[in-house]
Amino acid sequence: MASYELYRKSSIGTSLTDALEEMVTNGTISPLLAVKVLMQFDKSMQDALQTKVKSKTNFKGHLHTYRFCDNVWTFILENATFKTDNETQNVDHVKIVACDAKIIAR
After folding, report:
1. In the chain, what are the helix, strand and coil shares in percent, each to the nearest 5?
2. How far apart are CA 23 and CA 46, in angstroms?
3. N- to C-terminal Cα separation, the chain
4. Residue 93: phi, psi to the nearest 5?
5. In order of start, what are the domains of the chain with their CATH numbers?
6. What's residue 94's pLDDT?
7. Where in the cell is it found (predicted)?
8. What pLDDT sits at residue 3?
9. What is the pLDDT of residue 99?
10. What is the spatial distance between Cα 29 and Cα 34, in angstroms, rounded to a whole number?
11. Which residues partner with 68 through β-bridges?
12. Among candidates 6, 102, 75, which has minimal Cα distance to 45?
């Protein structure tokens, strides 16, 4: 099963990528193993978000920009408010990337 590489841009994804690059540079692991680790990370993040996360969030804000390319939606919101069951968070700018999970399930 394929998966998107979106989560590599998260803080945990960039930390993993940096650590793997350092290990490849030092000769601790092979480049092929580093790629396999990143692919497993992509699959594990997708699985964890589908099965482990149960909370829902509502958000609203001013839509600054939106794009649809290669079945990926990108939204940039300004002055957004995110609300969960017991918390509200205001942010100046947020980028939301949404992909169709049905496409990679084929």
Report:
1. 40, 35, 25
2. 25
3. 8
4. -140, 140
5. 6-51 (1.10.287.190), 58-104 (2.30.18.10)
6. 95
7. Nucleus
8. 65
9. 83
10. 7
11. 73
12. 6
Question: Are the C-beta atoms of 73 and 50 separated by less than 8 Å?
Answer: no
d(Cα 43, Cα 85) in Å, to the nearest integer?
28
Tokens matching residue 8: 């590599």
Name the maximum alpha-carbon separation found in the chain.
Answer: 48
Pairing of strands 58-69, 88-99: unpaired
pLDDT of residue 88: 95
Closest CA to 100 of 77, 69, 76, 59: 69
The confidence score (pLDDT) of residue 49 equals 85
**DSSP of 61-99:** EEEEEEEEETTEEEEEEEEEEEE-SS-EEEEEEEEEEEE
The pLDDT of residue 1: 46
